[in-house]
């Protein structure tokens, strides 16, 4: 078996998001956020990608799984002990903005929220687990969405600055590794989650989307500068949803189409956050879509001053593109578009499985940016069965993760500088895209189901023990 040279100090661990695990949506003086008004099941997908979402809770019509989630808010000690048993070096989590500023625009923070994360960080440090904290992970304050129009409104930058200064000052001795916006480029396909508004018509999406991005880039640069000033020795990265784009065939028209799709989706946001300037290719895109950004004095200088230290990214699938597509060629379940790749198998939810694509992604990103990389999401959503003896034999998950970790090892051999790997959903939680509990990613099974039933009991899956061995051997025992 090939032994892969994972570096000393490699950050093995797992990843979560506050809105998908915490629950306690109305406890501790927390305000409502976007995730709190997203229903579970098929209705969620419709709201995420289609216009007209009203950002209201309709309890008579829908079930809202994020309200309780898996109750990490009350069970964090139990869960962190399980992560420690696996040997986690790092735990990627997010802070819920509305636990710190319930509406988002307050002047003074909510002490109950600050104290909750104090306790979580202290529990992690008790076991020697390094927190890796995402500042904004699909949980924008609902008040800022309704009253300010989300990130379209430049005033939100001021509120975000107050938020980041507060958490950096509070947790400067507890957290050294940060990320700004989760999967920032996902706003191109799901603006509700990332940008805080719903597109009303296809025709008006371009201007507000890219103006919102400009404001978010300013927020990111402000956060980077503040992090470096307030927390000496800290590292702060961006976070991109990365899916390498393959041309369907060698037809130059398809190759060019794939290139354009990859530039916009995979590189646009990263180029601004890593290089500190708008890339050349986006200027033509703006011209073709009549986009004129309101860029104020000092904005471009700020972007240049606030470049990130590393590139965090999620990797779940690749994407195959063809300039002229037929409906029957679409890749089922792939929310970022594309057509079916005949060389790949797919998960239970139609996400194409492509470990070699991870090696390709690592090489592409490192070649482009020459910055340390951090895989902060990667995993397999699948149906898990609890056997009569209580065991959960998720060999399919082990196979998926093993092949992706091998691809990471190959990329390191290729010369890529890789900081760590926090696989997605180290414990079962609410799925972001579908609002289901049955789409499970974790090493730890949580007895919670799509109708809201369940005891919330935690059970170790077979993959729990496998990942423990992977970490203990620093990736040698796969």
TrEMBL record:
Active site positions: 377
What is the designated name of this protein? 6-phospho-beta-glucosidase
Record key words, sorted: Glycosidase, Hydrolase
Hydrolase as a keyword? yes
| Organism field | Metabacillus halosaccharovorans
Entry's NCBIfam families? PRK09593.1, PRK09852.1
- Record bears the keyword Transmembrane: no
Q: InterPro entries in the record, alphabetically?
A: GH (IPR017853), GH_1_N_CS (IPR033132), Glyco_hydro_1 (IPR001360), Glyco_hydro_1_AS (IPR018120)
Family statement: Belongs to the glycosyl hydrolase 1 family.
One Pfam family, short name please? Answer: Glyco_hydro_1
> What is the residue range of the signal peptide feature?
none
In terms of superkingdom, the source organism counts as: Bacteria
